[in-house]
Structures are given as structure tokens and as C-alpha cells.
Write a structure and sequence with these properties.
A hairpin with a 4-residue loop joins strand 7 and strand 8. The chain has 1 helix and 22 strands. The chain is mainly beta. The protein folds into 2 domains: 206 residues, Jelly Rolls (Sandwich), CATH 2.60.120.230; 146 residues, Sandwich (Jelly Rolls), CATH 2.60.120.
């Protein structure tokens, strides 16, 4: 599995190549570099030293059931953090999956947790995870994962509101999935540097006519292109003066199987026939910065076979588009460098392969779709 490596590794590498200058720090980084492609760790691979934990904050155990499709029906809860995080430069989230009463519910369902951004009066996706096929687990089953959420550190102060969307009807009084979050604030220097601000780039959960009704964007439906300006079109970032680098936090997962009958097509691929798009189709996204295509592509894929997953019911062994049953969804972090001291205006555009769906409406029952979240954080 890929692991996030510290930015300092990039700096050391550039020192030996002779292009790193201490007085400009990150400005000589490549225009775009990828820091990781997974964004989380298994419990047995805990990536932080417990001796460096300053304080921890935990939520109650949250019972997951279908709250409703609209945002107004999400389950709301508040977490009280320290009033200041000045002494902490990094924070890790322990995300615990568990069961209610007799154990977890049966199906692999999308769980999305958002955090309220008081500064900009908006909601940012904080965690996305898929519940396991839980029918074979007993009442004491649990699984923990570690997720680096350092980019959200400025938001984790005082009373903070969160909300949960859970897209399944499988919960009963006897069996239901649960989630619990524990935040570990670390005694470390600021991991990315001083945060100057942040900006939402893409968010498929916002109301949109090209959505499938489940907070995702439909894919390939004629007349409802995912590349439309209201979906994955150009976005402008006003990068503050003094910014050395921009961190992109990307989570894109594919769902739905509208090509199960072989009628969906990728006209630019060979062969062009789709395979259960989008859940079981390996796709890539291309990033354009100010109209320039970046060489490195993002891979929307997760290996779920062998040691990359754990035994459960259902089809958990099958590889999927950025997720696996019973695990957090993949989060990929990208670093944009070469920012001028006065700041700049960046235009971002994310492109997926062209796809022609057999569906005729964006909310058709079998439509392929992508949950998309991209946020930008500015650092010096």
C-alpha cells in the first residue's frame, strides 16, 4: 500500500539535485506532485507515536441508519475540542467501525461525515467510508483505521458541528452499523506549514440537476455530462499572497453498475465496452492547472484482494473504484508548487474518460455515478 511521505522528503531530494534553495522553501517543488494515493492506515500499522499525543477527543458511538436523502435530514452532532490548537501541528483520526446490539447490519453502505466550516459558512466532507458486509459478525466486532486529517486542524477548535449521511435501509433494532471518531492531537511542528486558508473545489453532494439523487454525479448520461461547468468544470482558486504550496485533498469513488449488460461505451478506450461502470471500472482523473495538462494522473481504484481487506460476507474481495467494503474510502493528496510570493489565481479542471451510458436520465436506477470531493488548502 502507498503511504504518505513527509514533504521534507521532497525537500531533501531537491537538495541533492541542487535545485532547492532554503530561502524560497517549497517554491521549487514540481508544479504538481502526489503525496499519497490511499490516505489511511490499518490499526496494526498505527502511523503515529502515542507518546507525542497532547490530547484526545472522542465522539459517542454513532448508530447508522437511513436518515434521509436531503441534507436537512442528516444526523447532526457537536464535538467539543480544545479552544486552541496552537501547540499541535498534526492530528490523526481513529475511525472505528462497529455493530449495534447483535452486530453490524448486512450491507456495504456509503457513510459520509461532514464538518461545518464556520469561517466560510459551508460544509466540508471530513470522512467517507463504506460499511462492511456485516451479517457474519457478532456483537463484539469492531475495526479501527487511522486517517490523517491535519488539513482540518484550524477547524477543530471549540464546539464544532458535524453531520452524517448514510445511504442504506439495512439497520434494525437488532443489527446496525456504528461509527466512532477519536481525534489525537500531536505534539509536532506544523506538518504542512502555516495554513492561510482553504477553498472548496468540487462537491457532488451539493444540489445539482446532473446528480443521481444520492449526492453523486451521474456519469455518461447524454445531455448530463459530468464535465459540465456545474460539475467537473473549471474552478478558480484565489491563492493568498505568501502561499508556498497548495494542498489538494481528493476523494473520488465510483458507484453503480449501469453497464452490466455491456451497452455502455468508452469511445477512447480499447476495447470500448465498459465493465460494470462505475463501481467495478478502473478509471483515472487528469488534472489541468491553468489549462495545462499535468502528466501524473489520479487512479480511482482500490485493491481488495489478499491482505488488502479482511474476511467478511459478500463480494468484499472484488476490486472497486476507490473503495472497499468495510474500509475508509481512498483520499489522495496532491501538492501544487511554484506559487509566486504575491500569490496567484489558479484555474483547476478535473477530467474523467469520456463515457456513453445506456441510461437516459441522471437518476435512472442503474446509472453509474461518482461521489466527488476536492478541497484546496493554502500553506506557507
Amino acid at each position: 500500500m502507498w503511504r504518505r511521505f513527509p514533504i521534507v522528503c521532497l525537500l531533501v531530494a531537491m537538495t541533492f539535485t541542487g535545485c532547492y534553495k532554503p530561502d524560497i522553501r517549497y517554491r521549487e517543488l514540481p508544479r504538481l506532485s502526489q503525496l499519497d494515493s490511499l490516505g489511511w492506515d490499518w490499526e496494526e500499522d498505527r502511523p503515529f507515536d502515542l507518546r507525542k499525543v497532547i490530547t484526545t477527543v472522542s465522539t459517542d458511538t454513532l448508530r447508522l441508519h437511513f436518515f434521509g436523502w436531503s441534507a436537512e435530514e442528516d444526523s447532526l452532532f457537536t464535538v467539543t475540542f480544545p479552544n486552541s490548537v496552537q501547540n499541535s501541528g498534526r492530528v490523526w483520526l481513529t475511525y472505528r467501525m462497529g455493530g449495534w446490539n447483535q452486530g453490524p447490519a448486512e450491507w456495504d453502505m456509503t457513510t459520509m461525515i461532514k464538518i461545518y466550516d464556520k469561517k466560510n459558512n459551508q460544509w466540508l466532507e471530513f470522512v467517507r467510508a463504506i460499511t462492511p458486509y456485516g451479517g457474519s459478525f457478532k456483537s463484539n466486532w469492531e475495526k479501527k483505521f487511522y486517517i490523517d486529517v491535519t488539513e482540518f486542524l484550524p477547524l477543530l477548535q471549540g464546539d464544532v458541528d458535524f453531520r452524517i449521511f448514510y445511504c442504506g435501509w439495512d439497520a434494525t433494532d437488532k443489527r446496525a452499523h456504528t461509527a466512532q471518531m477519536t481525534f489525537s492531537f500531536m505534539d509536532e511542528k506544523p506538518y504542512y506549514g502555516e495554513c492561510l486558508g482553504w477553498q472548496k473545489v468540487y462537491d457532488s453532494t451539493l444540489p445539482n440537476e446532473g446528480g443521481n439523487g444520492y449526492r453523486a454525479w451521474s456519469y455518461g448520461v447524454p445531455g448530463w455530462s459530468i464535465e459540465d461547468s456545474t460539475r467537473l468544470g473549471n474552478r478558480t482558486l484565489d491563492v493568498p499572497a505568501g502561499t508556498n504550496h497548495v494542498l489538494l485533498r481528493v476523494c473520488i469513488t465510483g458507484h453503480g453498475q449501469d453497464a452490466y449488460n455491456g451497452t455502455g461505451k468508452f469511445p477512447q478506450r480499447t476495447p470500448s465496452t465498459a465493465t460494470n461502470c462505475a463501481e467495478f471500472d478502473r478509471n483515472f482523473y487528469t488534472i489541468f492547472i491553468n489549462g495545462e495538462r499535468m502528466e501524473k494522473q489520479g487512479n480511482i481504484w482500490e485493491m481488495n484482494s489478499g491482505s488488502n481487506n479482511y474476511s467478511q460476507a459478500g463480494t468484499y474481495k472484488y476490486n472497486r473504484a476507490g473503495w472497499g467494503p468495510g474500509k475508509p474510502c481512498n483520499v489522495q493528496h496532491w501538492l501544487i508548487g511554484q506559487i509566486p510570493p504575491k500569490g496567484e489565481t489558479l484555474t483547476l479542471n478535473f477530467d474523467l474518460d469520456e463515457y456513453i451510458s445506456p441510461c437516459t436520465k441522471p437518476n435512472d436506477d442503474k446509472v453509474a455515478c461518482y461521489y466527488v470531493m476536492v478541497d484546496a488548502f493554502f500553506y506557507r
